[in-house]
Write a structure and sequence with these properties.
The structure is a homotetramer.
Chain A lengths: L4 E2 L4 E5 L6 E7 L9 H11 L16 E3 L3 E2 L2 E2 L4 E6 L21 H8 L15 H19 L2 E9 L2 E2 L5 H4 L12 H14 L5 E8 L13 H10 L4 E6 L10 H4 L3 E2 L2 E2 L7 E2 L2 E2 L4 E7 L9 E4 L5 E4 L9 H28 L14
Antiparallel strand pairs in A: 1-2, 2-3, 3-7, 4-7, 5-6, 8-9, 8-10, 10-16, 11-16, 12-13, 14-15, 17-18
Helix pairs in contact in A: 1-3, 1-8, 3-8, 6-8
């Protein structure tokens, strides 16, 4: 209820502050019988982890996840899965100067006003560190979706500042530190980021997720549409300011005759909808895009106010990402996987015995 | 769980198909003591109602809402509020040809695959008619927010096809059939829509909502952020394909030094964030934008498949909006009001006795 | 959240006051493809209906349920089902004297204190009239459970004041106005109730529910155990003050060697557990008992206070049941059916692909 | 959804198996500003802890709780509170013989059938060890209720086998290993338990909870009544088979003139209702009783079947409580506190601005 749980049937509840003892979470509703080890989850945690390249923060976080329950003899038992990631590299001294002031662009001010108190160390609960737990939980969903249904959740960086990926080659994405699927843009990204780091500033980004091998029929009418829940999931990622499904904002200037995807005996002729009609998956690839703001933790000096309301300066000296969008790629994948997983189980609850589940269009399931 | 409920503390659950006996809903969690009559809700229902101008569908729906419970002696009692809107103008014959085929761009195909059956009359549950109940429920929230906190939820059409509102004058919005806040664009809109109707095609639109007099501190960290819940609400409106908060997709090319809103002793110096930091309201106006696709019900002929998978033609002869975005303005307001209302009660549950609720920045609450 | 919704996947949300325009509800999560008509639900509504015998209230309520949505061409479509029961026989004058005082044993005082206002006509929302909607919703669950799994939910009056049913013959239950399964007790019940009516007093009762053909494995560990959810459901019925599963309170004096049900290759040798172990169904019959207090609406004069806190008298002149426990039988069945239905869908969501679902013990599923 | 979360606004989600690495949980929705240390929670954990007397199991579990998040500078911050209790004394060898058979009276059979697999070590998730987390979470609720509202949650053993507490002296309860509030029954309990241990058998018990200084108005009408949620909470405790509120099962033979509690200008004249009318607290003490079955882990030999369905013997050699009811006292208190806490926040969400919150009856709040 206080917002630390995501999902209704397959759910994850998280806890933890950036500089506390540990972060962690509980997955509830995982089907039994899924082979699962910590190594399965570590893959994506390592992709999200800071300090893996010179383009992301130099902070070292080991992000080693421990599975505390819900797995026995190598398989999930159907009971709740406890996840724990200890905080190691805390260096609280880096943040001592923020106790008495509100960093602009951060949640310092809003947490203080909401609760009358806040854990100011490293942003506390509002730190992106919390997303490590989402990545671990999303890893469980990804494994189940892939293994049981062949569904794959493929994220990538589609734009960084002015540089746009023009070809989407998923085999390229994980071979470079930018999660960029376009091999021709790597040199430009490298140069852009080097200059940006020198300037002490940060930049926004666009991240996209493509979900392949989608079943038809996932998503609930009216409020909990598949696209609405994806929007909720993505806008809930730190720094995200916009979400699109399919053609997104370009539909504003489209005509109906142009936008509607024709159905043919061979399948849909196009995918303007992004794989969702009436909130329910069409069986086509689901396509989601999101816009991430530039981090506000920059070494460019700025002004703000103290907790007493007086003007003061703000200089961030900590180690921060010049583009938080980059590391958001595995987070976006995890959140998308959690949404699909939850809707798969929700669909199954209500519709197990529907006879005509074979799609009319061959190959669409 | 099957998606027909919105909100956690102040919630609305809806039912009803386009051509059934009635549509309706239940509001749960409404504070007691609020003066409420059907006339309060009818205002927005009439704004949403089809047939009010030549630019929207000529279908006549009286959309008269009845309050069946939860109000006694003119005030809410705290118990659940039953809402009923009877369906009158059903003309099922208009839709008889769609029983055997899937209209492209509609939910016919996905409902059929999900459930193995569907109410094909007028789109059934997937019809935008269902949003009338949301508008009625949103009216209760709007009244409470305005009366108790002075909060106003102001929607408007910010773009229709290529025509953009350049000045936002809320006093203009409700004086024209487009909900356009820019008086200088009315003639252009009129001409554009006349041409569009002649062509038999439809067009997309952008709708925006500005929420004024926001309290500081609404929104729950991590998953149920205020902006994430707004994204869920807006993407759950029929035809919406994209949602932005504050600067939205333009943050992709922004620098951190440019985006972060400086705090001064007089308040925030700018509002790039759209009134939300870390998922919690800053006390500034909340700004949300959404993109609505052009309706797929057009008289331009198209192709599709029958429920048996054979190619067939599709011509929509019913009475439809050439731009569904226009009538979405009161729906977007209603959904935004439901989100704010729910978060207000959620905040109050946990934080009633916090001492330091006076904001540091004067005038910010 | 404000308590008007029951169930998580198969849920019912209700509204309505005793003397308002109508009562009703929304069922969400019903599987598609279930043949359903109003007549299916009317059977149990008629069993619950007042005025059917001289032992229950003489008030006439027609309790005619209307299905407003979610059913098309005679089968459920998977979308939300709207239910409406109009209030007819309101006779508000019977209750005019209760506006200024709190009837002892009723919810007048607590509603007034909770909400600062109340609909005092006939108890408003706290009236047992609201349970008619539960009975209708339970009817949908009962039909599905019976048809798809053979599960039957069989309620009966097990005790009324000092008179206990000693033989449980389900074929007798619905042949008499007491829902008593013991044919040898009908004469005694008849005499007892005649004397009670003369005295103007009321009496408590015990109602039991036996659920047959239960699948193994329903119920979720830890909090949402099958028995815990049954307790929630039953204690939520007006006038219920106690709930037992299986041996109930007699376990206090049992030894472990006596209580534990031995498993044999032919099945369990006994059913002290009431069909639930560790919160999960064993495949045996589920047995639940509940105690209902005597109604407080009696013609025996009493004392109470006015809404101003002054002493006053209270005489109930309305038409009331001398034993509310009798009509609670179909309500208890309905609530039990809602619990089983919800747990069936919850189980299916998580466990669809478990291989070893065949029980080790033959005949146990 | 899969049952590992309790509460809607103030909620606790738990994980962990008896013989896994650790058990733990997450509290969400805790008001900020509450002074909280691990020592606050340890008090009740130590009361629940095995090995504290010769009448409970000799297993040593240190049950040391660690607060991993949500507390900063000694006070709660309003964010989620992570709790961890490491498992220490595991001695898996004690349980090796149960892998291949289903212990009667335990959840071995039902877990296996539900999930197709189970963690058989010490009962896994079905072990009462999981309740340690509930006790820790309940401790947070107890502290808040006591400090902010003076509410106290007082549990005690009201009956053990044939021995009933006749006087309820709360100052006696925590001075003896039985949590018995009647000083005159201690010798009899001591003797009874000594004989029982010798016989190798176990015995049932009745545990009661009295909640003092209750505010008026807690509880939601219809389904989530205060008493219904208490029934859910209590029946969800391992081994509980029956729950009563107020007069409980004795209402069956009561007359209405006898049961209804008269309101006088000085307050209620009696408390047959157990402090709840219409599901809402009256301001009187809330009284709940529950029946706990005798543990099935006894050294008296028994029969059962193997996982292959063959007859086999069962002898429990582990260290077990001869009366699990005794240690259930702090668990029952914790669950009651969680219910009251949740309803307090739920009430506050909806009713913050009700004017007439002063009760008519002096001293009733």
């Amino acid at each position: 209820m206080s917002g630390n749980t995501f999902g209704k049937i397959f759910s994850v509840t998280t806890f933890g502050e950036s500089h506390g003892i540990a972060i962690g979470g509980i997955i509830d509703g995982c089907p039994p019988g899924l082979a699962l080890t910590e190594a399965d989850l570590q893959i994506d945690l390592d992709r999200r982890k800071p300090g893996t390249s010179r383009y992301t923060t130099a902070r070292r976080e080991d992000d080693e996840v421990q599975i505390l329950s819900g797995v026995f003899d190598g398989v999930t038992t159907g009971t709740s899965i406890g996840l724990l990631i200890k905080n190691k590299d805390q260096r609280s001294q880096d943040y001592s100067k923020i106790a008495d002031r509100f960093r602009p662009g951060h949640a310092d001010y809003t947490y203080q006003q909401k609760y009358g108190t806040r854990d100011y160390r490293g942003g506390g609960r509002s730190s992106a560190r919390e997303t490590a737990v989402r990545v671990a939980a999303g890893g469980v969903a990804k494994k189940y979706l892939k293994q049981e249904f062949g569904i794959e959740v493929l994220g990538y960086l589609s734009q960084l500042g002015p540089i746009k990926a023009e070809t989407i080659d998923h085999s390229v994405t994980n071979t470079n530190p930018f999660f960029c699927p376009d091999p021709d843009k790597l040199a430009a990204l490298d140069e852009y980021m080097r200059d940006l780091k020198k300037s002490g500033d940060s930049i926004g980004a666009k991240v996209s997720v493509q979900i392949t091998n989608m079943p038809v029929g996932l998503g609930e009418p009216v409020f909990d549409r598949l696209d609405a829940d994806l929007a909720h999931a993505m806008m809930g990622i730190n720094a995200v300011k916009g979400v699109e499904v399919g053609d997104g904002f370009s539909v504003i200037e489209q005509k109906g005759s142009e936008h509607r995807d024709t159905l043919t005996p061979e399948g849909f002729a196009s995918n303007h909808s992004g794989g969702v009609l009436g909130g329910i998956s069409t069986g086509q690839d689901v396509i989601v895009h999101m816009a991430l703001k530039p981090t506000s933790s920059i070494t460019v000096p700025g002004e703000t106010i103290t907790t007493e309301g007086k003007t003061t300066d703000v200089i961030t000296k900590g180690r921060h990402d010049p583009c938080v969008g980059i590391r958001a790629v595995p987070i976006a994948e995890a959140m998308a996987a959690l949404v699909i997983m939850d809707h798969l189980l929700r669909h199954r609850a209500q519709n197990a015995n529907v006879q005509s589940s074979t799609p009319v269009i061959p190959g669409a399931i």
